[in-house]
User: What shape does this take?
Amino acid sequence: MLKRTKKILALGLSCMMMIASAAGCGSTQSQPTDQPAAQTAETQQNPSAEPTGQNETKDSAEEGLHKLTQQDILDIYDPVVKAEYKDDSMSEAVKSGTGADLKLTEEEKDKIRSMNLKIALEQDHLDDSMKLIQQAFRDQCEDLNIELSDIWVATAQDGASQMEDYQRIEAIAQDYDAIFTCPSDAAMETEILKKIMKKTKLGCMLAVPFDLDWNDPNFIGITDIDAYQAGIYSAEAAVKILNGQGKIGTIGYINGKNGTINTCYQRYKGWDDVLAKYPDVEVVDEWYDDPAESKSVITGLLASNPDIKVLLIDWANPPADNAQTAFKELGYEAWKDISMVTIDIDNTITIPMATDGPDHNYTGAFVAQTWYTAGANLVKMYCKNLLAEETGEAYPKFVVSSPLPVTVYENLKTNFTYCVPESVTEIPVPAEIDALENQWDLGVEDIWSK
Assistant: This one.
């Protein structure tokens, strides 16, 4: 059996598991004054998507940490997944559609352009992932003649601050043709989101309200990244770096553990499903309740488990960045004392990865999730919702976008350019990354630029 030390309570049945974790077109981005400042149960359909096999990893284990090869990355990668959204309030899961299902013809685009629509976007925080979503909204709105009137960002990354946003939004929701948001605590925010949806259309990322009528015409739907697959990729990378034997420490977000942010919940499900297959890997874990304050959780776990060799940590910024700081303060040497695997692309980890080089970078690997694609999909889904009112044609109300193959130093520049389109001017290719040479090619079919 997997030797797994847990310091957490089991998931409470009372916590609804959410299935789902970058102002533009003449928009203004500001904190609100008078205005407000997915359960993605993905199941792999291809046998090769199963974790790569404990015996292979164990048999090839050698002393020290292992740098991932391009073949390692190809072995981990599998685009064939089937995502579903289901929380405890739902009797049946909603299966994910594809980006192709949301493609708009020029005739359909012209219909949308003639509507002179006005929308707004609310986010619970602003890191590089959220910036990618914002830019996707700006790009789509510009193409479709939709006014992205406002972008609001909560004052703090917690449910209470976002609730304050929602309360102000609810008072003015009727002034917009649609409101889009990334709920951070669906258990807390369900009722206020339903009030907003009574006044205008509502589109979501990460999670949706509980006990939701998915057939309500005011519910646009939900888009997300393929979080479970990101969990699979990151855990497989961590085990390979560990050479299949030793101790891994995992650090996650409590709101993912308890299911209120389903995106994170699905990542951790992916972790568990992989790590359970490796009996020679011991896992210890801890949870942060505030991403900004995650450093103390990290240092505490390392202090009580000095034999941790690989840290698997959710969220690049700030948790993984906090981990880098902790490693330096503890005097850890990269690839000798520790290596880190994380999820999401952010310059707080990509720039050090580029400048420190392949032998001295703390981030041994990360999984870049395609947030730009997910943001673009949500605007397209809104258009499908509007067109359906006229045609009655059904469209998928849940669509995920696949993560890129695992990113390491040797393909950092390649994956950055696929994940961050040139239109995202707030996240230009850093000079440190642009200067990298002899980078691996993508190695798989490009399903992200289509």
In short: The longest strand covers residues 246-253. Residues 1-61 have pLDDT under 50 and may be disordered.
